[in-house]
Input
Amino acid sequence: MEKQEYTITLYTENSVGMIGRISTIFSRRKINIESLNTSPSEAEGIHRFTIVINESEEVVRKLCRQIEKQVEVLKAYFNTNDEVIWQEQALYKVPTDVVAEKAPVERLLRQFGASAVVIRNDYTVFETAGHREDIDKLTEALAEYNLIEFVRGARIAIIKDSAGFHRKLKQFEQAEPAEEVVENEYLDKQDKVFTM
Output
């Protein structure tokens, strides 16, 4: 099967070591992670991982099933680029005198929708968001005008045909309501219950 870029979206509990456990699954299968972002989701207490990889659909399908076996992982989705709305953010540091004196730089920044974040005498920092190709084009163009520094953030993505995980979680809770917490009557009698 042919490899292509996939965006994997994971909904997990927010627990220590999740990034390590998830990245171990990828490294055991020798799959390179192109981009990794984690953030709170629309559901309280649930975190969302957005992971970008280049693999075949069969490998991605198996990978998601393996990831869902983790106790803290609630759901794993995978989508092609056509099935998600995605962006990456970038910051550029450019000498202020170049921006002020060269009209092509100003036009270039406007063309790519970049806006100034910090303006100092020695440098100006611009930010922009877009697809990787657009960010790469702007980076190449600014390299000709003494680009001092550049950083790109990880992909953030929303699945086009999804009602959101929060809605699915609410439906599950209505179908399978959580039982009331019952105090274990043997909790303080361990020595008596578990004797040889």
In short: The radius of gyration is 23 Å.
